[in-house]
Write a structure and sequence with these properties.
Keywords: Oxidoreductase. It is built from 3 helices and 12 strands. It is mainly β and 168 residues long. The radius of gyration is 17 Å and the shape is globular. The protein binds flavin mononucleotide.
Length: 168
């Protein structure tokens, strides 16, 4: 198979184009074997398959949480509400204990589910694919749920945070 032609754009132009794709925002959480709770903000979440129920997300190889996410059997994808912007920032940047003072409860798999998440997916860490500077994680969903209230989702677009307005 012929290999790809080299890109005719730089990383900034690639980021600019990718930024036009509006996404929701999630926090992926897990509990290390030591009991330490780990979480990172991720917008790379997407659905893969209905039967079996599969989802995916990708993690930068430089992330300090990589060894835990690679080794753990389970993690939770928490879908954020617009009212959870502070949590989104905290789990993207804070160097210390990101869970300090953050309300959460253990799900059926024992992994932490954040209070107030619009939806959550408790996943078995089914497979991982090494690609470029990220690892793609495919999770098999064992449990999922929704809060079921009318709060708006957090939306990430052009590097900024938004929520949704109905079109009509
Ligand atoms: C809106 C938003 C989306 C992000 N999406 C991702 C993502 O999909 N994958 C990723 O590896 N990092 C993503 N990040 C950056 C990580 O949250 C951040 O690098 C991570 O929390 C670093 O944690 P760690 O080094 O402690 O593992 C995102 C950050 C923000 C603000």
């Amino acid at each position: 198979m012929k290999s790809a032609a080299p890109p005719n754009f730089d990383t900034a132009a690639f980021r600019l184009a990718l930024g036009e794709f509006a996404t929701g925002v999630t926090i992926i959480t897990t509990r290390a074997e030591s009991g330490q709770l780990i979480g990172i903000t991720a917008s790379s979440f997407n659905s893969v398959s209905l039967a079996p129920p599969l989802v995916l997300w990708s993690l930068a190889k430089r992330a300090s949480s990589m060894t835990v996410f690679e080794a753990n059997t389970h993690y939770v994808v928490n879908v954020l509400a617009a009212s959870q912007l502070a949590l989104c920032r905290r789990f993207a940047t804070l160097k210390g204990d990101r869970f300090a003072g953050v309300a959460h409860a253990a799900g059926d798999t024992g992994m932490p589910i954040l209070d107030g998440a619009l939806a959550w997916f408790e996943c078995h860490n089914r497979s991982r694919y090494d690609e470029g500077d990220h690892v793609i994680f495919v999770g098999e969903v064992e449990r999922c749920g929704v809060t079921g209230d009318a709060r708006e989702p957090l939306v990430f677009h052009r590097g900024g945070f938004h929520t949704v307005d109905p079109l009509g």
